[in-house]
Predict the structure of Cell division control protein 14.
Amino acid sequence: MEALLSLAFDNIASKDTAKIRKGLRQIEGMLAQICLSSGKSKPSTPSHRRNASAINLGEQQTYSPKKLGALAEDPAFREFFRLQEGFEWNVAIRLVDCLERLLGMQSNGQNDLLILSALSNLQGLLLLHPPSRTIFGREIYMNMLLDLLDPYNCPAIQSSTLLVLVTSLLATPQNTRTFENTDGLLTVTSLFKSEETSQNVKLKLLEFLYFYLMPEAPPPTASAPSTAMGLQRSPTKLTGAFERRNSTVSGDEGGGVSKKNIRSQEEKQHMLARYLNNVEDLVQDLRENTPFGAVAC
């Protein structure tokens, strides 16, 4: 896995768009192998048989997503998670650096496709390795996401960026404070109110505002045991282990989210009301319909 990551890192660090594309596909392929289970093979259609050497004698594999419990017991995922704990092999940091370089390159359709691919990979990484979300506690990285929401970017990039932004804030209140401190609310609401913003992006912006207004997770009542990796615990406790590891990375000694990082729903409502009218209606709708269930952000 180290060899594959090293090769992918070299490619996405290049200024050659062909190499960047290759590196992003290598990362995507690695994530697919980790997350998908191969099923029974089935004969390919006649039109595919000319590629038999690439699909093992004319047979194609069907794939299905692995369940969370199965993922926790998967040796490849365990190795991937272990590697992400160190700076040298952390994929999220390399993808963020790649996005910064792409933003500095000439804007065109080909470059936009590379940005979309990098964002898609980054979203997957932040879901697979929640501790990597802590990099967005730094203003330089949060500002990069907000730059991707600028009106000059295409709607597809804006929509994908919003998905990454939600993932970066999920169960990480300290990142939400960074988002607020870097004028994230002003950026999001300005884009929402702009007449030039597409309807699809406005819908995703509205979903983001609902997410932002959700109650934030309170600190756990009990301290978590100190472990090098949350994956040493049982699969049923995998999600909790992620959150505890995330807290450890962010420097909270109590094993939970620091109280000083948490804002109440009323506080966030008041902050959002500085830039947007009728925030009370959003909160009321959120309480009545619970669009995200009972999950705290």
Observations:
- The chain has 14 helices and two strands.
- The chain has one domain: 2-36+65-212+231-279.
- Residues 39-60, 219-256 have pLDDT under 50 and may be disordered.
